[in-house]
Specification:
Largest sheet: none
Order of helices and strands: HHHHHHHHHHH
Number of domains: 2
Number of strands: 0
Radius of gyration: 17 Å
Shape: globular
Length: about 210
């Protein structure tokens, strides 16, 4: 299990912690929230410490930069593809065609810029434990929503994503991912964590639906 978790960690970050083929990683997609915990603890602790002596906007910038550095923004292209497909006029097939185009459109560029700017501004509004908690919960919920979307949604087209979609049709795996998320949020006894969890699930259901 540790080897598989290491492979999933390497898939979601630029840190080499294991090596497996894509099929093996897909089978263990339910561990994504666990990786979210690791990333959240690391960046959350860094943000907490930095917020004690740096200006809020600088902290927000550094934490966002840390997230970019750790994850390599490997999956941000999915956001840009989604934005391009969302904004193009035409049929579903036309939208899928635009999303599969390796070139990034203006909508995708704007979406990524807004995403980064919103992250920096949001992070700069918090400090201390509040910042740590927000980063941890955000990372766990984000990774869980990837699992949830694969579990309930279809594959838009056959590709590297297909193995993840097929693997996550096992509802036991979704239950494990859900348990990891809840067990992360519950000990803090903070209603904001459950609100974030509920909001992320609702948004995922809307997007997938």
């Amino acid at each position: 299990m540790f080897r598989q978790a290491g492979s999933v960690f390497s898939f979601l970050t630029i840190i080499p912690a294991g090596s497996s083929d894509l099929q093996t990683i897909a089978k263990h997609m339910y561990l994504f929230p666990l990786i979210g915990i690791a990333i959240g603890l690391l960046l959350g602790a860094a943000g907490w410490g930095l917020s004690l002596f740096l200006e809020p906007l600088v902290v927000g910038l550094l934490v966002a930069a840390g997230l970019v550095l750790i994850t390599g923004i490997h999956h941000t292209d999915g956001l840009s593809d989604f934005a391009d497909g969302l904004m193009v006029k035409g049929s579903r097939e036309k939208k899928l065609e635009v999303m599969r185009d390796p070139k990034v459109g203006s909508a995708g560029i704007v979406a990524v810029i807004f995403y980064v700017a919103a992250a920096i501004i949001s992070l700069s509004l918090m400090k201390g434990f509040e910042l740590f908690y927000a980063i941890l919960i955000a990372e766990v919920c984000a990774k869980f929503c990837m699992v949830l979307s694969a579990s309930i949604g279809p594959s838009a087209w056959q590709g590297s994503n297909s193995s993840f979609i097929e693997s996550m049709k096992d509802k036991k795996k979704l239950a494990i991912a859900t348990a990891i998320m809840i067990c992360t949020i519950a000990p803090f006894q903070n209603i904001a964590g459950f609100e974030a969890m509920a909001a992320s699930i609702v948004v995922t259901l809307i997007i997938v639906g």
